[in-house]
């Protein structure tokens, strides 16, 4: 080899040696490894958790620096059943969120974003080609229920949890698996809205068609009490709820729903009305039971004693319920032996009273009761009052023929106008007034006719006899002049003409 060639070869070798030993720039290194081409924002890459630092973890993704996985980027509330934090050495997929170039290069990655995309893809595949799919209840939230749908959280509004928007507690669906339909999905907003009601309404429609086909007015069914109101009870019959109005709950008058049934009770009802257009069913409980009026004569007879509760007080009397569905009337005239203006003077609503059955009429559904009959003040009246007894009485009312006086509560007597005074009386009001208290003598006691006769004039005549011996013949003449002209008889015997003339002559001589 020539010297020139040798020199060229030596220079070339020297150049190659120098080129191989010369250091490469960062850009040359990245280009030689293809890093700039493979790592970009939004790319999903696999990595390994290599360290835990403040605020997150470092993940080796084969880049010039480890990717930083912030704590907030590890998981997301829409992801179901996520671990609280990753473990060192754990393999996972992350998405590049941000790249910072230069000497302080930095790589920010996110785990939940790529996990969300993966699960959303599974959801798309699951619901593709089918209307319904299963979900699991997670937790109750304001306005509805959160569910697990392909490990993503979905929302069911409370109005779409039950059929026809019926009120329901979302908490009862927690951990329950049930079918739903998709109402709305938005990947960008990460929004899933589902409905259970849509499925139920379709099933309910078919069930109701079968119900209306099989049930008619008069059909007796069994149902479950679903709710109580002030006006009645709702009973669930399966595909529909029917209403038992308060008037159809019991034969008992003014029965309160809470006293007849409670929620969850199984009851037998009779269909008494169907409104298919508005899906309304009218029911009756009492019509499944026998009418107590049909057998009332088997339980009650005239003269029986009945204890009941006063249900109503009117101007003409008081109604008393002696058994459920059976009310009797105590007429105002059978409430008290004394004259009263209104029944409330004797009896009050809600009061428990003892009565006697006066009459039973099953045809007209009437039961007549008596209240005063159990406390008749005329019983033993002859033991308390006798002829010739002087007693204080009170004038209660005046009539043309005399005055009615009260001896005791419930016992009245009559003082005839002829017995009001020893003098002639034109009308009772000239001698007595209502409310006046006087003393009178009993002249007759008749318990059979419930009659007592009294006299005031008999007392006056008794007083006159006591004064007659002291007044002598002159006093006798004076007393005789005050008597009615038609009464010439005294307690001592008849007056003769001789007695009359002799007394007159005696008076003449006295003057002389």
TrEMBL record:
Residue stretches of biased makeup (Polar residues): 481-490
GO CC aspect terms: cytoplasm
Keywords annotated in UniProt: Ribonucleoprotein, Ribosomal protein
Alphabetized SUPFAM superfamilies for the sequence: Nucleic acid-binding proteins
Alphabetical GO biological process terms: translation
Residue ranges of the region described as Disordered: 1-23, 458-499
A Pfam family reported for this protein in Swiss-Prot or TrEMBL: S1
Gene Ontology molecular-function annotations: mRNA binding; structural constituent of ribosome
S1 motif domain residues: 42-112, 124-197, 218-286, 303-372, 388-457
PANTHER family according to UniProt: 30S RIBOSOMAL PROTEIN S1 (PTHR10724), SMALL RIBOSOMAL SUBUNIT PROTEIN BS1C (PTHR10724:SF7)
Primary role: Binds mRNA; thus facilitating recognition of the initiation point. It is needed to translate mRNA with a short Shine-Dalgarno (SD) purine-rich sequence.
Family: Belongs to the bacterial ribosomal protein bS1 family.
Protein name: RNA binding S1 domain protein
Origin species: Dethiosulfovibrio peptidovorans DSM 11002
